[in-house]
Amino acid sequence: MPHSTRFSQPPHMQKAATTEAATTEAPPPDDAAEPMRDEPAGARTGDTTGAPIADAPDEPAADALADAPAPTGWRDRHPAGARAGARAVTVLAAVLVLAALLLPNQLTRLTPGEFLRIPVEGIFGAALLLLLPPRARRVVAVVAGVGLGLRALLNCLDMGFYSVLARPFDPVLDWGLFGDAVSFLKDSIGQAGATGAVIGVVALVLALLALMTLAVVRLTRVMVRHSAVATRTTLVLGTVWITCAALGVQLAGVPVASTNTADLVQDSAQRLRASLADQQVFAKEAHVDAFRDTPPDQLLTGLRGKDVLFTFIESYGRSAIDDPAMASQVDAVLKDGTERLRKAGFASRSGWLTSPTAGGGSWLAHSTFMSGLWIKNQQRYRTVTSSDRMPLTDAFKRSGAWRTSGIMPGVTRSWPEGKFYGLDHVYDTHHLGYKGPQFSWSRVPDQYSLSAFERLEHGKPHHKPLMSEIILVSSHNPWAPIPKTIGWDQLGDGSVYHGIKKAGKDPKEVWKDPAHVRTEYRRAIQYSLHSLISYMEKYGNKNTVLVFLGDHQPVPTVTGEHASRDVPVALVAHDPAVLDRISGWGWQKGLKPGPKTPVWRMDTFRDRFLTAYGPQAGDSKPPRPSH
């Protein structure tokens, strides 16, 4: 709509026009009612007499407002709410970024004091973003958001690994463990539950990365829009941080001047370099083998004619014996077991071994014990199990004097490592004949596994003695429900366990309280020990030699954050000559090692064992085995 001539004039001309209009006739009412949306400020008319109101620029004409378009969006209808919402989103973005900068990587450090600090990384980041030109600033903001999201994700992974394996996540070597975690979930909560958990985790990861990036970008825009205030705030915070750092100011025992993210990044970088170099280091270690060229007829001469059983008890750690909350009950089982075995004609010696893992990763402990190498990660495990290294079990096979087997109730799929261990036959969960229910992760109760071993191997007549590796899994996390020991003649095909499982506890209820977790862990260890001792009483004979040990300590929920990685180990034999061979080891009599009993690294056991039971002065040369 065309404007009136007087509103098209410059401001200095409008006053003259207004004066002229006052001495002539007023404009018609229709002209005054026309909407004048493009007029300059201070040039609006108002009263019905036609007299213009040039000095009331903030009072709009009533007719002009009547013709203005009505607000259509939520922001237009509720401008105050829109402003409050925008401020709330900015605050939430700041909280998210601050939390990510201060997030620790261990659950024990997840306290309010950790988040009441000043992160130096945030100060430097804000200064950098304020100094950069617009295009570079946008790129840096996005990169910083993604990087901060990844750092927060790695911190969460560290928390999980510390809680389960008592160590941080290895960004190079630990990715393969997620497959094992999914398998654990399938065995514990079923396929549907495991799938839902995986989908949920993936969604959370993507959401974390997206939200962190959006948060950094939003804060960058706000800082640029209020650059003066942002610059002053950055300078003040930088000064406060330097002062607090110089004076060592702390809040609730935590330094106020934080370098949390920088320290964690540096730690991750060091671990990354160490992991990348570990393969070469391990290759050199594995090349040294004192028994590589030992002739078969010189291997294990002190055990010829004996049935030798190596038995691992899942999560049987030192805490089960030393922790006051569990010690009395577990010690009672060991004391009673020592006496029961003595009455059956067996003697025993016990000691301590330090496992390379804790909370999980049983296969790392098994391979360390058998290979004589420190297998602390998945890369080392893959390397050693695909090599020609002679593990302890394979030494029995190479001698030609034993048949070898493995009882592996926790193995549900193909297990090619059986060839590395020198096992002629492996009985996994599908070969034990078990028809009973699954006890959480543990598919087969320990007593049934030992009964199946007797039925399938130990109780059968053979022309050679037996060497077997047996894995007992009833003491595996989550320790609920727990089987109970019953008569050996009641086991049948395992169907009897349906009622026993039904009477057991729900793991979801147990894990609501750490005290309940420790109680059920202790009960599971007691069950496994009872089962093994009872087996030796019933089926052991004068030629039976048993070596049993824990593979690792349980999770920190049971042990606490600073527990050792020691596990008990015991050797049980009917023939006194067998124990005489280890008289120099300094081991304690009985099944319970004492507090002053020597502690060895687990990887030293193979060489000590092969040496103790190899040829010694005065031994008669064993006959060369026939093939």
TrEMBL record:
Keywords recorded for this protein, A-Z: Membrane, Transmembrane, Transmembrane helix
Biased composition (Low complexity): 16-25, 62-71
UniProt organism field: Streptomyces tubercidicus
InterPro entries, A to Z: Alkaline_phosphatase_core_sf (IPR017850)
Segments for region (Disordered): 1-79
Name recorded for this polypeptide: Sulfatase
TM helices/strands, residue ranges: 84-103, 115-132, 139-165, 194-217, 229-252
UniProt entry tagged with the keyword Membrane: yes
Coiled coil: none
